[in-house]
Amino acid sequence: MSDAIRDLLRELEEFGERNDREHGDRSRRMLNLTREAGEFLSVAVRASRASKVLEIGTSNGYSTLWIALGLGLDGGSIVTVERSDHKVGLAAKNRERAGIEGMVSQYHGEAGTFLEECADHSFDLVFLDSDRTEYVAWWPNLRRVLRPGGALIADNALSHPDEFAPFQRVVESDPEFISCVVPVGKGEFFASRVGNSGE
Ligand SMILES: C[S@@+](CC[C@H](N)C(=O)[O-])C[C@H]1O[C@@H](n2cnc3c(N)ncnc32)[C@H](O)[C@@H]1O
Fold this sequence. Notes:
Layout: H1 3-22, H2 35-47, E1 52-56, H3 62-70, E2 77-82, H4 85-98, E3 104-108, H5 111-117, E4 123-128, H6 135-145, E5 146-154, H7 161-172, E6 177-182, E7 188-193
Parallel strand pairs: 1-2, 1-4, 2-3, 4-5
Antiparallel strand pairs: 5-7, 6-7
Helix pairs in contact: 2-3
Bound molecules: S-adenosylmethionine (SAM).
């Protein structure tokens, strides 16, 4: 990792902590994943040999940067979805600073709408870090857009177990998926779909 990327990650971590302490209004908080979860996400992207990644819940782009690191900063592509005008603006600036704007497409809008519009098997890996109460409703489209052999990672499995459990049960009962919860950060739910890469 270059010094510039290392410094930017540190800066975003400090900004996120300070910002989220100062803002009572949840919609103004960055709610970034932890550094350890970012490292895990990066390694998971690399190890699964993903090249097309979907992120739902951009915020200011902190986790996008970890995904990009997993992709090697110049290979692969990321589509990231965010509905907040304010956060979309911050994320664009951070992508530019990191020099990853060429590999990232921002969808500015509702994740449910985006998923409806997406073609089957469009992504190798989906990272879910958004409105947990919607995950069960999104599941038919999430599994449709994920290619066979693909992976899904979702944040907050341990920090918000009551909200997360219905989604976890749906994925666990799907015969095409195996899954586990990795106790890193706020709890990363990690699911893998059967099938061969490139199918
Ligand atoms: C936990 S934050 C994402 C943090 C980010 N992944 C990171 O670690 O840097 C969740 C984000 O999802 C966005 N969000 C929530 N529900 C959404 C929806 N239905 N469609 C699009 N974005 C949504 C929120 O505006 C918020 O910025």
